[in-house]
Fold these 4 entries.
Entry 1:
Amino acid sequence: MPAYRTSFLLRLPIAWAAAFVAACSQGDEPATTRAARAIPTAAAPAPVAPAIAAAGPETVPPVAAAPARGLADLLPAIELPQPLQSAACLAHTQAAAKARAPVAVHRWVDAAGITHYSDQAPPANAQGHRVIAVGGAPAVDVQASGYDVNLPDQLQQRAVADALGVQRVMHDTLGVPVPEGMSLKIVFIRSDSAYAQQVGEPSLAKSSGTYSTLDRTIRVRMQDQDEVNFAVLRHEITHALVHESIGNLPVSLNEGLAEYFGRYRSGGMGGQVDVGEQRQGMVAAAPGGDGSEALVDLLSREGGDFYTETVAAGERERRYLRAYSLVALLMRDREGRLALQGVLSAQAQAPCTPIAAERVLDAGYPGGLGRLAAEWTAFMRNPPSDVRAY
C-alpha cells in the first residue's frame, strides 16, 4: 500500500494489553519464510534528490557500502526494483503554502544603556532606534474541511502548532531539513461508510486516520474526544512531514516515527513526549528470545504487509507498538539518534524507493543489529516512564 500511511491509534490500554497477550501467545512470526523469498539485491534505479547534509547539531558519518554484518544477512531485501510513482517521492507542497510576510523587529537602547529587541515600537526617549525586517517562519498552510461533521475547535491553530513543533524536533534531533513551507489538506469524517469510501482501501477502513501520498490529503475519522482526534492528526501530520522532506521511508520506520510524534504535546516554547504512556501495551507486545527474529520481521515488512492481520487479533497493533518502541529507543540517546539520522539522510537522497534500512542501522548503530535487537527487546520488556522535553 505505497500510497497510504495510516493510524490505528484508537486503542484502550487495557484492551491493548489483552489483545497483545493473546497475540504474543502465538509466538513471533518466523522470518525464515520471508528470508526464503529474498532476492539478491541490486540498487534500484530511482530519481535522486539533491544530497541533504545533516542540519542538526549532530553529524552522521558517511555510510559505507560495505557488506552487511550479522542479522542484516537474514533480512529480505527492501531495495527490490519496483514501479516508481511520482506521488511516492517528495510531496513538494511548498508552492501551495502561503509565504509569511516579514516581521518588523525594533531595536533600541534605553537610558540605562540596555539594548532591546521587540515587535513593538520603542518609547519616545529610546536611542539608536532601528527597524529590522526578519523573514517569517516557514509557513504551514492548513486547508481543513468537514465531510459530514463540524471541525474541532482551534483546529487551524493546533494543526499549525503541531506541524511546526514536530518539524522543529525532527530538524534539531535528526537533521531533517525544514522546507520553505508546506500545505496540509485535512478532512474530518464521521460516518464509517463515508470514511471507508473516502479512504478507498478496504484494509484501512477501520483505521483512525490516513495520509495519502497520491492526493497529499490527511483523513481523520472523527471521534468524540478532541484530544484523540488531535493525536491521530499529529500521527498523520508526521507522515506528511516525512513525505515532504524525506520520501518513501520503509513502512516500519515511517509508522514508528508517526507513533512517536503522535504523542508529542506542544506547550510553551517547546513540547514533550510521554514515552511510557502505554507501558502495559509495550510489555505485552515485547518480542520473545533475543528479539532477533522479531526485528527481522518488523524491518522486512513492506507496504500493506505491515497492516495485515493473518495470525491473531491484535497482530497489527503489536507491530505499531514495536515500531514505536524501536523509534523511541533510537531517540533515547545520541548514538541512537545518529543511527536513525543516517537512515533518514540516506532515504532523502533517493526518495522514491524505500532503502534497506537494516543495512544502514547495522552499519550505524554501535554493535550492529544484534545489539539493537537486544536493547529493543529489553526496552519493551521494561519500558521507561520518562517524559522527554524538546
Entry 2:
Amino acid sequence: MISTRERLIVALDVSSCADALKIVSSLGDSVQTYKVGMQLYTAKGPKIVRDLISAGKSVFLDLKYHDIPNTVAATVREAAHLGVSMMTVHASGGTKMLRAAAEAARNSNSPPKILAVTVLTSMDENDLHEIGVSGQPVDQVLKLAGIALAAGCDGIVSSAHEVRNLRTSFGQSFLAITPGVRPAGAAHGDQARVVTPAEAIAAGATHIVMGRPITAALRPEAAIQSVLRELEGAETVAGSKTT
C-alpha cells in the first residue's frame, strides 16, 4: 500500500545543490521523494544524489536513458550503486534495451525501479506526426507500455490522460508515474496534457510528479499540504468505488 506522502514526487528543477537542498529543507518531512532530472544532474552530477540520500530522502533519477543495451545496463548498475530508488529509460529504445535495464536493476544489491517513458507530456498528436508516428498519443503510449512491461520494467511514465487506458489494458500490478500535474487553476507551463492531482489518482496513477507549482510557490509548505489533502480526498473516493 502506497501512502499519500509516498505518492508525491517533487521535481528539483534547479541547477545548484544549494538551491535543491534549500527546497528540501523548506518542505521538511512532508516530502520523501525528489526527482533529479537532466538540468540538476548535468550541473552537479552524482553529488546531488548522494546529498539527498544522506538527508534521508529517496531519489527518482529521471535521465531517460536511451542507448545500446550494454551501455544502458552499465548505467543502471551505476545508478543502483548510487542508491537511487527509481530511474527512467525511454521505452522507444526497444525490448533488448529495456530488458537489459530491468535485468541490471534486478541483479543489483538495492534494485531501483525501472520506469519506461512512453510519450513526453509536452507532445501532442502533431508532434508525433512530425517524427513519423501516426495516430493519437494514447495509441503510442499503449504500444510502448506493452513492450516495456513485457521486457520487465516496473512501471510506466505517462500523462494521466493515458493511465486509465493503461490500467484497462495491463491491469494494476505496475507503477504509473504521472508528470504534467498542476493544481486546479495553475499555469500549464510547457506541458501539453495536464491534469490535477485528484484527476491523476482517479485515473489510476500511483505517483504524481510536481515541480514549479510547489517549489516556486510563495509558501511551498502550504502548497504541499494543499496537494496532500487533494490526494487524500482522491484516495478516499477511489477506495469507495472499489468497496
Entry 3:
Amino acid sequence: MEIPSSYKLCAATAALAVGCTVSYLAYKRRGRVRNANDVFNYLTVKIVTTEESCDAVVAELKKRCQKHRALGFDCEWVTNNGKRQPVALVQLSSLDGYCGLFRLNTLKTVPLSLKELLEDESIYKVGVGPKDDSKYLHNDYAVELRSSLDIRHLAEYCGYEPGGLASLSSVLLRATLDKSWRVRCSDWEAEELSERQKKYAAIDAHVAIKIFALLLEKLEENYSSYWELGYNTASVWTRLYDYCSKYADVGYKTKHTIKLKDHAKEKDPKIKEPTKRYKLTKRTRPLYNNGYLQAPDGELLCICDNRKGMWFVNKGLADLIKEDPLTVRLKFEPAGRAVGDVGRYYQLEKENKCVVCASTNHCIRKNVVPREYRKLFPEIMKEHSSHDVVLLCAECHQMSNIRDQHMRVSLAEKCNAPLPSSSKDRFIEDMAAKKVRSAARALYHANDKLPEVRRKELEDTLLQHYPDQEEITLELLKEACSIPVVRENTDYESHGIKVVDYYFKHTSLLQLEQEWREHFLKNMKPKYMPALWSVKHNEERLKVKWDEGRLTTEDLKSIGLSTF
C-alpha cells in the first residue's frame, strides 16, 4: 500500500533581457523556437465520448504503435475549491500523430478496450509525471496503469536538464507549448471542449512520445537530427526493453523533492529557514558584467552578461569584436531591435549596488513582482525581460520581503485568496500512515523488549492496515517501516492562482504587475533605480510589439486585454 509522493514541479526560466528574441532564434542553430500549434499542425485528434468510438480509437492506436510499442500519455482533471475531481480526460498519442482524447467524465467509466490498453505491459505509456496520473486513475477508476515511463529519467541519462514537458520541448523539439494556467486550469468537464483545450491536450501527449523517441536516438548515439517515423532506426525499438525496463513504473524524484520529504519526515527543529536565508543567494561576483551585444550592422541591442555573450561566440552565432569590455556582434538578424525608452532601458549599463541604499556589499537579486504571481503570467509578459530583477543589500532585501507581506494580505482580502497559514499547508502528514510506520519500527527494532499486550496492539495496527495479510512477517515489517507519511494536501488552495485569476477577470495582469512595482517604490523608496525603469514598462514593451505586428489578439486575451 505504497503512498506515492512525487510532485510535479513547475519551473520557469529567465531569458536575455532584450526586446528581440535573440537566444531563441539562435539556439543550437536550429532556427526559431516555434509555437507548438504550428509545429504539430499535422495531428489527427479524435474525441472519445462513447464506448463504440473508444473501441475504434484504441484499435487504431494499437495498430499504429505495433512497431514502436509506446504511446504519449497524459491526464487532465478539474480542481474545485482546492479538491481534485476524478480524472476527466486521458490523452494518448502515437508517434505519427494520431491522438485519442478519452473523456472519462462523459463515459462515466473506463471502457474495457481502454482499460486493457492502459494495463498492457508491452506498451510503454510515456510522459512527465505519469506515476501521479497512475495513482489518480487507480483511485478514481480502479485502472492499474502499467509500463508508465517518466521521460525525465531518459533526459537526465542523456545529459539534459530534466525539467518539465515545456522546457524539454523547447530544448529538444524547438517547440513552445501553451502552458498558460488559463488552459491548464480550465474546465476539463465542460460539455464541449474548446479548440484550445483540444490542441493543448493532444499536443501534450504527442510531445511526450516525440521527446521519448528523440532521447532513444541519443542513447543509440547514431543520430543527431530529429526522428520522424523511425523507419530507418529499427534497432532503437528492438532494444526498447533494454533502455526502458528499469524505469518502468518508477516515479521520477527531483533532488528538491527528496529534500522536502526528508525535511518533513525528520522534522528537525534545528533546521530553520533563517539559517540559510541569504547564504545561498548573496552574490560573490558582480551580477552585471555590462557586455555589449550588437546587431550585424553594429547597432547596440542590449547590455548582456559576459557568459551569455560568449555563448553566442562559442556556438558560432556571433563574432567577438572586443574583449574588454566584451563586445559581441551577431551573425543573424534578430526579430526586433531597441525601440523607444523600452528598448533604450536594455542598452544602459547596470550598476552592482543596492538600488535602495547604494551598498555594494553582498547584493541579492530581488524580484519586484514575487515569483508566486509572475510564474502564472503568460510567456509574452515574461520572455526576455529582466526589468523586475533589481539588486538589494541583505538588510534591504529582508525589509522588502517583510513589507511584501502587507501587500499579500491586501491582495488576499481583495481577491478572496486566503494566504496559507504555514508552509506545511501544502504538504500534510498522513497520521494513519505515521501510526503504522511507528508500530512497524517498534516491532522491528524492539520486539523482544515490548510487553505482550503492547506488542499485540502494534501487530493489530499493522494487520488492520494490511487486511490481506494474516500474520506479521519480516518482509511486511520492512515495507511498513519505510512507508511515506507525508503527502500533498489536495485541499490546498493556491493564493497566487486566485489573485492572478481575479486580475485576469476584473482588470488585467498588467495591472497586478504595475501594483507590485508601485508597492516597491512606495515602501522601499529606492534612490538608485536604473534609468528608464518604469512602472508601465511591460505595457509599453507589449505596445511596441503590437504596433510591429508581433502580437496577436489571442496574446492580448491571455493577459486580460482586448486591445491597446
Entry 4:
Amino acid sequence: MSLILEVKDLVKSYNGKEVLHGISFQVEKGEVFALLGINGAGKSTTLECLEGLKRYESGSIQFFNKNGSQSKLHNRIGIQLQSSALPGNITVYEAYRLFCLANKVKADKELLERFGLKNLLYKQYSSLSTGQKRRLHLVLALVHNPEIVFLDEPTAGLDVEGQVALHEEISKLKESGKTILLASHDMAEVEKLCNRIAIMKEGKIGYIGSPEELIPAFSDTAEIALKTEDSYELGNLNFSKYLKRDNGYDYYKSSVLSDALLELLQFYKENNQKVLDIKINHATLEEKFMEFSKEELA
C-alpha cells in the first residue's frame, strides 16, 4: 500500500519544554490509524502540527510523498472542527455553503442528508445537540472529498446512542477506502474502528501495531485454568506461576504460553491427574493500555 503520511522524529516544545519527543509513524492509504493516549499524552498537539496549526522545532512531516506546507495540500486533507470554531448564530446550511465555497465545490445537500442533517438546514449552530454538532463537523471536513481526514476525539461528550451513530459513519468512511487519522483516549473506540494504533504517553510513542498485535507487544502474559477432579497445586514451575484454586480449576499465569501448557499437561499426566477442561484468558487491550499508562517510558 502507498503512504499517505510519514512523520519522522517530530519534536515540539512549549516555552522551552519539549512536549513531543521525536515521534515517528506512517499512515497508509485506506487505513484508519489512531493516536491513542490519556489526556496530556500529546495526541492533539501532534494533530495540530500535522494540520499546520502549530510550528514544530525539528523532524519532518510528509504528505503523499511530498515535502511542503500543509496549506498547499489543503484540498487533499479534511480537518474536523472543534466546537468553538463556528459562530453560534450560523445555520447548518450557511456553514455548509461557506465550506463548499471555500473549497470550490458544489453545495448539494446529499452529504447533509447522508449524515442526518437535511432537516436541520436552517437551525442555528448554538441550538444543535452535541451529536448534531459532531456530525456537522464531520460533514464540513468531507465537503471536498479529501484523501485523508483528521478526527480529534470525535465522540467525546456524546451519549452512547450518539457514539454508536458516529461510529457507524466513520465505519462507512473506512469501508469506502477513506484514510482516517483519529486521536482518542477511548480504547474501545479505536479497537473497534482502527486498523493500527500508536499508543502515546508523555509525548512519546510506546507501541504501534494492529489491535491484535498490541496485546502480545505489551505483554504475552496469559492466565491458564485447568479443571481437575481433585485439587493439585503444582506450585511454580519453569514456565508458569500458580495463582489459585477456584470452582474446580487450578489457575496459573505464564508469559510463555505454549511451553507452559506442555509443562503443565505433562506434570498432571505424570501425577495421574486427569485434566477435564482447559481455559486460556488473554488480557484485553484495554487492560494492557491501562497498565501501560501507569508505567514510565524510557
